[in-house]
Write a structure and sequence with these properties.
Strand content: 15-25%
Largest sheet: 5 strands, mixed
Helix content: 55-70%
Structural class: alpha+beta
Number of strands: 11
């Protein structure tokens, strides 16, 4: 069986390395190598140019197209585990794979990313039972070609955008995996997760680990919020109730995660300092219980996970609340420090002030609602107002 390897290239340096490797190690394989030099920067445009070249070549609608990032390593036999699924199920349109991380940086970042992928395994296996997933990961996903060579799909990848009442129309910087996912949702396409097909993702962390962690959350959470909004608008009939509710749960969980620390801090300040002690005990017990499930899905035990898990949940919720009113602001630190949504004009400054005001109102409303509901503070007696 022959195959064609398409490379969306940015410069001759990468091309020379790949050509040399193929001549040395793959000259005996029935493999055709085609390079597409991009004339417009950005990963999205590189993918779009390759897909346009495929369309001109006239590939068959049942051909399989594998998306793979340059900073990923395939485990042995991964294609043998993925490709036959499309033969066995003519309705299947896309699959995504399991991931593990190889991290060059602080050890606690390696531990955090390993925990994140353990969480991903639990979620993705559950989602796949509904014949849908929540993302078609860019590290590696396999698609049936009949959708990918359509102009509508290609244009969505190249210039996916969203309208926001405050920020107007803005294009997505990263999140091409979310764009492909959303397009497949609009087509009611069947999608699966393959748990025994493993891809290793390479992460290089320079500088502050906390800063990189926050940047990753801003990118991941921003992509989730931008695409989750329009996925919810498709409705449960189109998306499927379970996946639709999972998207809705992501929007709710970022607020509910903040409830317990608000109660603990308020009770400590207003009543008794021992409330914070009991809260820490509860966090230690509850996160250890959750970590026991994660240990099973990571095949390793990490004693620091209960603490990293809570910090992960708290920081992720805070970043989502911050991003909710700032969807146009985007940063992609591991792709040349690309940024979008910045600006120093008077209009941009006014929009930033409005976004800060909206976030303050939302957080204040949450805090007051929690305090009144828990009766840590009482409603004023209206009789004394008259």
């Amino acid at each position: 069986m022959s195959a064609t390897l398409w490379l969306g290239s940015g410069d001759a340096y990468d091309e020379d390395i790949i050509m040399t490797y193929l001549r040395q190690h793959a000259s005996h394989l029935p493999l055709q190598f085609i390079m597409i030099r991009q004339n417009i920067p950005g990963k999205r445009m590189a993918i779009g140019l390759v897909l346009r070249a495929m369309s001109r070549r006239g590939i068959h609608s049942d051909d399989l197209i594998v998306f793979m990032d340059g900073d990923a390593v395939l485990s042995p036999g991964i294609l043998r585990k993925c490709c036959p699924l499309f033969k066995d199920d003519p309705q299947l349109q896309a699959i995504t794979t399991d991931e593990e991380v190889i991290c060059y940086g602080p050890k606690w970042i390696q531990s955090w990313l390993t925990m994140r992928f353990a969480q991903r395994r639990i979620a993705m296996q559950s989602h796949s039972m509904a014949n849908k997933v929540l993302t078609l990961t860019g590290r590696m996903s396999v698609f049936r070609a009949n959708h990918l060579t359509r102009l509508k799909f290609i244009r969505m990848l190249e210039a996916d955008h969203l309208y926001h009442w405050l920020w107007g129309n803005f294009r997505f910087l990263s999140g091409d995996d979310k764009s492909t996912w959303y397009y497949m949702l609009t087509q009611d396409a069947k999608m699966l997760y393959v748990p025994d097909a493993l891809v290793y993702t390479i992460e290089e962390i320079d500088g502050s680990g906390i800063e990189r962690m926050t940047q990753n959350f801003r990118r991941w959470s921003g992509n989730m919020l931008r695409n989750g909004t329009r996925a919810l608008k498709l409705g449960p009939n189109k998306v499927g109730f379970f996946i639709w509710w999972c998207v809705m749960d992501q929007r709710i969980a970022m607020w509910t995660m903040l409830v317990s620390p608000i109660v603990a801090i308020a009770a400590t300040l207003l009543h008794d300092p021992y409330y914070i002690v009991s809260y820490f005990i509860w966090i230690a017990i509850s996160r250890m219980g959750l970590s026991l499930f994660l240990f099973r899905y990571s095949n390793t035990v990490h004693v620091e996970w209960p603490f990293i898990l809570y910090f992960n949940q708290l920081l992720n919720a805070g970043v989502k609340v911050y991003c909710l009113a700032r969807l146009s602001k985007q940063s992609w630190s591991n792709r040349g420090n690309q940024t979008a949504g910045g600006g120093d004009s008077l209009s941009d400054q006014l929009k930033n002030i409005m976004a800060s005001y909206i976030t303050t109102v939302w957080v204040t409303a949450l805090v007051m609602t929690v305090l009144f509901y828990t009766q840590l503070i009482k409603f004023p007696d209206l009789r004394y107002l008259f």
